[in-house]
Design a protein that fits this description.
Blueprint: H1 2-57, E1 68-70, H2 72-81, E2 85-89, E3 98-99, H3 107-110, E4 122-123, H4 140-148, E5 152-156, H5 164-179, E6 188-192, E7 204-208, E8 211-215, H6 220-230, E9 250-252, E10 255-257, E11 264-269
Parallel strand pairs: 1-9, 3-4, 5-6
Antiparallel strand pairs: 2-8, 5-7, 7-8, 10-11
Length: about 300
């Protein structure tokens, strides 16, 4: 009888040990799961914070609180210092024919004068918008269609300038603040140009529809002035209503603008009125109401 009781007690102790081990194993598994979950949460938080900090320090275009103001006299001085030369001044090529991408002639066959071109025949499709600087040369045949819609393209020769990154940051900021129009393909493009190379031999080639200006070096004041003068509805592109010039982003601080188009008026420096009574009333805010510019050519459907 005593032997049976001792065996029973042993069995109970063994059962107790087994139950204790089971509970300890379950607790260990629970701790491991909690530790893994907490680790994942911590890693996610660190990743989010890191991304925010990275964005704050190096990434993303700046959102402008105020317009970038450019002085026209300083732009003229900057053009001279950068060795800029106006090759074509609002004189586009007459041929505006379109062709499908799969039937497109080579660029060398259709652009036989100033390279990169400022106008001329082009693909039926516009080039997708590249908000910052392109890593490789964009297709001249499709980007010419973007020019027709009011885009500005700044090409550069990487062998003559290392400002490609700076140029890309510049275009990205302006595109993010209203210059990129995804519907019409109007934007500010920056791209290297090595084949066949900038025909003038200079390092930088600014292009708008019917306008070609080449410079020996990159200068942001020069670039800003070119955009103000020729982007979208400020330029002469046949389908420029597809590239409306964004108000309050980039403008001259000392040049009169046309009340109807908001474009700079050539040679008209701003002057303070002599007497408030002599000025025309424009409303409570003092600004004339702009009207939409129209052209003889209606925007294409493509």
């Amino acid at each position: 009888m005593a032997e049976r009781e001792r065996l029973t007690n042993k069995e109970r102790r063994a059962q107790s040990r087994d139950e204790r081990k089971r509970r300890e194993a379950e607790l260990a598994r629970k701790r491991k799961r909690n530790s893994l979950r907490n680790g994942l949460i911590t890693a996610a938080v660190v990743a989010v914070v890191g991304a925010v900090l990275l964005q704050a320090f190096i990434g993303g275009p700046a959102t402008l609180d105020d317009a970038i103001l450019v002085n026209s006299s300083e732009v003229e001085d900057a053009r001279a210092a950068a060795g800029c030369e106006m090759l074509v001044d609002r004189e586009p090529l007459e041929d505006r024919s379109h062709f499908e991408a799969n039937a497109a002639p080579s660029p060398d066959a259709i652009y036989t004068d100033v390279r990169p071109t400022h106008s001329g025949p082009h693909m039926l499709q516009t080039h997708p918008i590249v908000s910052s600087g392109a890593n490789s040369q964009l297709d001249e045949r499709s980007t010419t269609h973007n020019l027709e819609h009011g885009a500005v393209i700044v090409w550069h020769d990487p062998d003559q300038t290392d400002a490609g990154g700076e140029m890309g940051d510049w275009s990205e900021t302006l595109n993010a603040n209203g210059f990129a129009n995804s519907r019409g393909g109007a934007a500010i493009f920056v791209s290297p140009y090595t084949d066949p190379g900038i025909s003038s031999g200079k390092a930088i080639a600014f292009r708008a529809w019917g306008v070609a200006m080449d410079c020996d070096s990159w200068d942001e004041d020069v670039a800003n002035g070119f955009v103000i003068d020729h982007y979208g509805t400020h330029g002469i592109a046949p389908e420029r209503p597809l590239g409306p010039y964004p108000e309050g982003v980039l403008e001259y601080e000392d040049v009169e603008v046309d009340d109807n188009t908001d474009a700079p008026v050539d040679g008209q420096l701003m002057e303070e009125p002599e007497d408030d009574a002599d000025t025309e009333s424009t409303g409570d805010d003092g600004d004339a109401e702009p009207t939409e510019e129209t052209t003889e050519d209606e925007p294409a459907d493509e």
